[in-house]
Structures are given as C-alpha cells and as structure tokens.
Amino acid sequence: MNAKERMKIPPVDMPEQDPKERVSNLDEVPLGYTPEMAMMEAKRCIQCKTAFCIEGCPVGIDIPGFIKLIEDGDFKGAARKMKERNLLPAMCGRVCPQEEQCQLFCTIGKVRKNPCESVMIGKLERFIADWDREQGEFEQPPSVKSSGRRVAVIGAGPAGLTVAGDLVKFGHEVIVFEALHKAGGVLVYGIPEFRLPKKIVQSEVDYLEKIGVEFRYDHVIGKTIPVRKIVDDFDAVFIGTGAGLPRFMRVDGENLLGVLSANEYLTRANLMKAYDFPEADTPIVKGKKVITVGGGNVAMDCARTALRMGAERSLIVYRRAEEQMPARLEEIHHAKEEGVEFHLLQNPVRLVGDDRGWIKGAEVIKMELGEPDSSGRRRPVPIEGSEFIENTDALIVAIGNSPNPLVPNSFPDLEVTRWGGIVVNEITGQTSVPGVFAGGDIVLGAATVILAMGHGRRAARAMNLYLSSGRWVDLDSALDLSRAEVH
Amino acid sequence: MYQLLHKEKLGPDIFLYRFRASDIARYRKPGQFVIVRIHENGERIPITIADVDIEEGSITLIIQAVGKTTLQMAQMKKGDSIPTLTGPLGEPTHIEKVGRVLCVGGGIGIAPLYPAARAMKDAGNHVTSILGARSSNLIILADLMREASDDLIITTDDGTEGQKGLVTDAIRNLVDNGEEFDQCIAMGPPIMMKFVCILTEKLGIPTIVSLNPIMVDGTGMCGCCRVTVGDEVKFACIDGPEFDGHKVDFDELMARLATYRSEEKNALEGYSSHAGCRLDSMSEGGSR
Ligand SMILES: Cc1cc2nc3c(=O)[nH]c(=O)nc-3n(C[C@H](O)[C@H](O)[C@H](O)COP(=O)(O)OP(=O)(O)OC[C@H]3O[C@@H](n4cnc5c(N)ncnc54)[C@H](O)[C@@H]3O)c2cc1C
Ligand SMILES: Cc1cc2nc3c(=O)[nH]c(=O)nc-3n(C[C@H](O)[C@H](O)[C@H](O)COP(=O)(O)OP(=O)(O)OC[C@H]3O[C@@H](n4cnc5c(N)ncnc54)[C@H](O)[C@@H]3O)c2cc1C
Ligand code: SF4
Ligand code: FES
C-alpha cells in the first residue's frame, strides 16, 4: 500500500457506550478497538522519515515504530516498544490531550487539513496497553545488581510511580510514601471510573509491587514522619505530591451546604465509592440540578459524574467561550452527548441559600470577550447589569488546584515559587536541597499525567546518576542528556 | 493494618481504643488527630489522639458511638485490625506558660481536652477544669482530668453529679468568686463551645476551641472541612482543628455538620436493622 492510498483511509472510530445508557452506569465510555480495527487504523500511518508526532510527545515514544508493529500484527512487540518510553500507556492512551500533542503534529492530520483526522495515536496506544494487560503475562525486567541505595518517593501519583518503577529497575531500593489509602494520585481519587477504570491503575501499581517497589500507605510526609527525617534516612528523595490544593471562588455563600470543591466531590465519588452508598459508607451531595463551575477536564468529570449520581440537569458554567476551554476535546464531546448543558461566558458572583443554609441558587453575571490576557486567550469581562439567578441544588467548584503546600510548609529549606510550586532544575528535577528531587504537578501546578511522568522519568535518570556518583553540583551537564534523549 | 490492642467501655456508647501505630505515637503532639477507616468500603473519620504510649508504640482514641462507623467500631474486639490510621494530622495545641488556664470540656470533648490540659499543667500553668455532660454517666476521664488539673468542677444538666447546670454557669460562678484566667480552652459540642466563647469574650479571656467539621482526606486536599474564622476561610484539618474561639462562625459550623444528616440516618438504620443494634445513640445527635 502506498502513502496516497493510506492517506485516503478515514479514521477508524472507536465504539462507545450509548450516551443514554452510559449515564446510568459507571462503565468506561469508549469500548476499545478490536485487533482488526487497530490494524486498520495503523495502516493510516505513512511512517514519516521525520516523525513530527514524536516531537509532540512529552516522553518521546517511537510512535511510527509501535504503529508499524501493530500493522504487522506483532502486538507484543508493539507493547514492548511503547513501554521503552512510557511506563503507564493504558492511562496515557485514555487521558492524554493527544489533540495538543502527538496528533496535533501528525502529517496525516495536516494533509487532511483536520487535526481530528490524524492517526489515532492515543487510541492505538490504549489498544496495545489493554491487549498487553489482558495477556496477563508478567515480564520480569532484566535483573540488576542491588546498588545498596535507598530512595524515598513521596506521593504515589503518576510522577512518583514513574520514578519508583525506573529506580527499582536501576537496582535501587524504593519506598513510596502515600498519604491516602490507595496509590495512583489523581488517577484514583480524581479521574472517574467511566474515564479510567480503577482496575487499570491498580494493575500498574501491582506491577510495580511485583518488581520490588514497596508502598507505605496512610503516610502523610511532613506529619506522620517529618520531611527532614526522610531526607536524612534515605540516599535520595523524590517529591511528587501533586497539585492537591483546591481553589475556591471567594464569593459570598461559598460555605453553604451543597457547595463543594471538585476534589471533594470526585474523591467521595471515586476513592470513597459514594456511588455505592450505603453499601460503601461515604455519602455524597446529590441534586436534581447540579452546577459545575469551570471548563477543564476536572469540570467535565464533575458534570458527568453528577449525571451518574442521578442529576436530571447538569450544567457547566464557564466564564470564557467554548474554544477556550482547557478540557480535552473528547471530554467536551462526551459531556455534550450525555446532555451536560454548557452555559458559556457566565460567572457566578454570589451564591444564595435557603433558611437551612443549603444552596438554592447562584447569582450569575454574563461575560463578553475582551483583549487577550497573559495566557493569550481573550479575557472575559463582565457585562454590567446582566446578573440573573440560576436555581440549583448543588454547586461544584472546579476552577483549579494549586501545588500541595504540606511538604514545602513543613520543610522551609525547600525553595518554592510565589505560587507555591517547588523550584527545580528543569533537566534533572533537583531542588534547592541536596539529594532531594521533585516533579509533576507539585512543580508545574495542575498540568497533565504525561508531563508528570516525563518529569518522573528525567528525575529518575538524574537520581540514578546522583546515587552512583554522589555528584550534586552540575549534575545536569554530567547527565549529558542529548536533546533527543531528554524528550 | 493497625491492630486493636485494648478496648474498654468508659460510659454509655463511649469506648476507649488503643491501636498499634508506632510512627503516629512517636511524632504526635497534643491537639492532633488521626483519620480512621475501619474496612475497605469504610468512611474516613477524624478522631483526636487522646494519648500515646511510645514504648508500646500505641495511640489511644476515645470515641462516642453516634453513627454507622463509630457503632461498628464499638463492635470491634481486641486483636481486630483496621486498614487505615493516618496521622498525626492537624496543628498541635499551642502550649505555653501563660499563668492560669481554664479548661472546659463537654461530653466526648473531654477526650481531646485531656491531653491539652495535661500539657498545660506540665508547662507550669495553674489548671482549673470544668467538665460538663447531660448526666453523670456521660462524664468521662474524671480521674485523669483530676490529675491533670489543680481544681476540677463537674456539672450535669440533671444534677446527677457535681453542680446542676451548664458549664457556662460554672464559669460565671468562678469569675463571680474573683477567679481570674489568662487563657481558656474549650472542647465539646459546637453549641457548648459557642456559648462558652460568647461568655469568655465578655469576660475578656482568650479562648481556644477545637472544631469538628466533617472531613474526608484530612490532608488539605478537599476543602470539606472549611470553617470561617474572622474574615478568613480555613481548612480545619490543616490550619486547625484549634482556632481562636472568639472568631469562629459556630452557626455555619453547626449547619455544615448537618450536610449528610439524612444519609447518615439511612446508613445507620440500614446497618442497625442488619446488625440488630440499638438506635438510641442516634438521638444523642452531633459529635463530641
Ligand atoms: C479530575 C481531574 C481530571 C484530570 N484529567 C486529566 C486528563 O484527562 N488528562 C491529563 O493528562 N491530566 C488530567 N488531570 C491532571 C493529572 O491528573 C495531573 O496532572 C497528574 O495526576 C499529576 O501527577 P502527580 O504525580 O504530579 O500528582 P498527583 O496525581 O496529584 O499525585 C500526588 C500524590 O501525592 C500524595 N501526597 C500529597 N501530599 C503528600 C504527603 N505529604 N505525603 C505523602 N503523599 C502525599 C497525594 O495523595 C497523591 O496521591 C486531571 C486532574 C484532575 C484532578
Ligand atoms: C478533628 C476532629 C476530632 C474529633 N475527635 C473525636 C473524638 O476524639 N471522639 C469522638 O467520638 N469523635 C470525634 N470527632 C467526631 C467524629 O469524627 C464523628 O463523630 C464521626 O465521624 C461520626 O461518624 P459515624 O459514621 O459514626 O457517624 P455519622 O452517622 O457519619 O454521623 C453522626 C454525626 O457525626 C458527624 N460527622 C459525620 N461524619 C463526620 C466526619 N467525617 N467528621 C466529623 N464529624 C462527622 C455528623 O455531623 C453527625 O452529627 C472528631 C471530629 C473532628 C473533625
Ligand atoms: S506523524 Fe502521523 S503519519 Fe507520520 S509517523 Fe507520526 S503518526 Fe505516522
Ligand atoms: S478534610 Fe479535606 S481538606 Fe480538610
């Protein structure tokens, strides 16, 4: 088949649960490719000499490489190729913003003048990761001599899990300290089951345990054990404590009953299984009509969860326009299909309660787009006198999260930025404290799974060198990471 | 897993539990709490660490059975284990030699009050304690509190022990009799803390209270525990649970505690009909 013919093949759609049906269950929405579908989709890749897609991938997966193996039907080989670069492909295939990464750069999308018609790299990634997991074969990584070095990883989110997996493979002893009772970070407490089934996260964690990573749950570092003690007791430390501090709107009425942060709502629903109440003990606020404020993935997750918790109407209230929503395209699309109502260019200015202190409405002001702001997006400006009351039974605040201040606050030696992110060397993840590295959302602020993993991967390499050489100063130049390798 | 080493009954529906948890025991300071989760589908509930035994590597919790989780705990036996015990969380009590300290405890609030009173006494303060409850059998830890205090007064609503009346009556009596205090610590049901604070504000006694909002993670991640203190919103699990009582919005706290009241009731009824246990603790309402 020549390139021209390949370019003519339309994208292979992934079958999905019917929107009407899926809002009454928690099962995953996209059902996955069959092997035939995956091999057909793989045919669409023209194996570019300069693969721009790789440039767009924060961890530099050999994309044409694994796609070729799928086309040839060598799924095992494809899985191996992918895992060279990405430890958690089943998750990335599901939650990465591919339309802003690999698929944005794909030649096919450019030729077809529609990035939505690029090679479906994310869907292929998911297919291979699922296929591989379902084989149930456990591949013990090549055994290495124990280094005798001990590493502490604080936080079991994607950043911490990546560091742990890599360092154990380098022969170091790794202990992961996690504040909650489960590993996975946002992947288990935030992102809902219907988007990322928890058994997938669990199987990745199980894999890490099998290859020798030790997990200590219920350990809030800075509280259960002082950070200083961890730094003293271990040869190196990685901090991956994420961006778990919920931001509120700071408007009147925000402490009314029925008003909660996205973190609280999703934690109750996911980690604490409130969908199963009273079988599971944790309750959740339910409403016939639920407003979610915000326009990112987090807001989409809340609005869609609300439908599954029985809401008759679920509204997104967002102060900018739809084009400016930071959520993945697929999430917006799925939310709309399920009947989530988008109330754009609107912003709550005050919440109104009833006589028992429950929220009964939000006073909302309409907005219009003004001049571009520092993020390059046109700034929303309130239209004076346009306020009106939107009645509601519950309101979820999903306007963002800031870096978790717990570790930095209890360890003042650690240099942080004005907004609370830990300051690191970008190449190595080194912090201001010798022996201590950091990465993921605690450095970037609320970002993405793949960036957190990319940070973890780079930090792991630097930590490995630090552990074997004892060198701290100029570790970045010693690492001599070629640009391609950094990727 | 965290093993239950010892359990004893202190009063109707009030039990003392000692769990093995050596890291928590080692680093805990008075005023801090733990998050408890008793089985895989369990809720995460906050409980103050009443005492620790570093040698045994254990912590003591004193818990009133008021709902599904705490009733299930009341069924536990020595040797049983629970999956989650996270802590020590929250900021410790600010312990300082200030002179004369008044410790006021109501109901289950006497449990968290005890470590604070003892630490205040150990720091060289003169400690006067007032313990209040509806009835005599609900007064817990009286002996330990007596040891931790220079003077101890007991009040009961029904007069079955000590003075008949409320803790606020006892405070007023002391002050009318010329006693002076540099600091008050009040722990108990929100309604009691509210009225103690109204009184101590009039009397000009700085007052620390320990708040008991609903929590989930206990690490500052969800904001469920937010309380209004002065003109600021604070997360009780990270910034507290102790705050300047004269600035706390108690009405908001009490309203928020009712968020899940109907769900709690359902869960409890489901569980009780299942386990065949008594429902009478339900009527005691509220926590602490
Ligand atoms: C609802 C939601 C939806 C999202 N959707 C997407 C998406 O579709 N695609 C995407 O790419 N990204 C998405 N994100 C963002 C993505 O999940 C994060 O960028 C990513 O998880 C960051 O990884 P991390 O390892 O840095 O931190 P986290 O995942 O936040 O993990 C940090 C871990 O550290 C633990 N911890 C914190 N403090 C301590 C302490 N003191 N001691 C011990 N442990 C501690 C926490 O409990 C947590 O488990 C979403 C985020 C949310 C909240
Ligand atoms: C910092 C702190 C320290 C505490 N220390 C103690 C203690 O030492 N001893 C003790 O007996 N109790 C203490 N409590 C209260 C205790 O957490 C609740 O009584 C317990 O959660 C009730 O759970 P349940 O499932 O048995 O009851 P539920 O049926 O869930 O609720 C019964 C009552 O408890 C309140 N409540 C429910 N869930 C919570 C929650 N997660 N956090 C707080 N209150 C809740 C409800 O408002 C309701 O009035 C403390 C609370 C806080 C915040
Ligand atoms: S850019 Fe697109 S067509 Fe080219 S190698 Fe990458 S996936 Fe294949
Ligand atoms: S309990 Fe979640 S922030 Fe305090």
Provide an overview of this structure.
The complex is a heterodimer of chains A (487) and B (288). Chain A has helices at residues 3-8, 19-22, 35-43, 52-55, 63-71, 75-85, 89-95, 102-105, 107-111, 121-135, 158-169, 186-189, 198-210, 227-233, 262-269, 297-308, 329-337, 406-410, 441-444, 449-469, 475-479, 483-486, and strands spanning 150-154, 173-177, 214-216, 236-239, 245-246, 259-261, 289-293, 313-318, 341-344, 346-353, 359-372, 378-382, 388-391, 394-397, 401-402, 436-438. Chain A has 487 residues and is α/β, with parallel strands linked by helices. In chain A, the strands form four sheets. Chain A has a five-stranded parallel β-sheet with strand order 3-2-1-4-16, with helices on both faces. Chain A has a five-stranded parallel β-sheet with strand order 6-14-7-8-9. In chain A, helix 17 links the parallel strand 8 and strand 9. In chain A, helix 3 (35-43) packs across helix 5, helix 6 (75-85) crosses helix 10 and helix 7 (89-95) packs antiparallel against helix 10. By secondary structure, chain B is an alpha/beta fold. Helix content of chain B is 31%, strand content 30%. Chain B is built from ten helices and 17 strands. Chain B has helices at residues 22-27, 68-74, 110-122, 142-148, 167-176, 190-203, 236-239, 250-257, 261-275, 280-283; strands at residues 2-11, 14-20, 33-37, 45-48, 51-53, 58-64, 81-82, 84-89, 100-106, 126-133, 151-156, 163-164, 183-187, 207-210, 226-229, 232-235, 242-244. In chain B, the strands form four sheets. Chain B has a seven-stranded mixed β-sheet with strand order 12-11-10-9-13-14-17, sandwiched between helices. In chain B, strand 15 (226-229) and strand 16 (232-235) form a beta hairpin. In chain B, helix 3 (110-122) runs parallel beside helix 4 (142-148) and helix 5 runs parallel beside helix 6. Residues 276-288 of chain B have low confidence and may be disordered. The A-B interface holds A 179-181, 189, 217-220, 223-226, 244-246, 248, 254-255, 257-258, 260-261, 263-264, 267-268, 272-273, 276-283, 285, 356-357, 404-406 and B 23-24, 27, 35, 37, 41-44, 68-69, 83-89, 216-217, 219-224, 226, 228, 233, 238, 252, 255-256, 258-260, 263-264, 266-267, 270-271. Bound molecules: flavin-adenine dinucleotide (2 copies), iron/sulfur cluster (SF4) and FE2/S2 (inorganic) cluster.
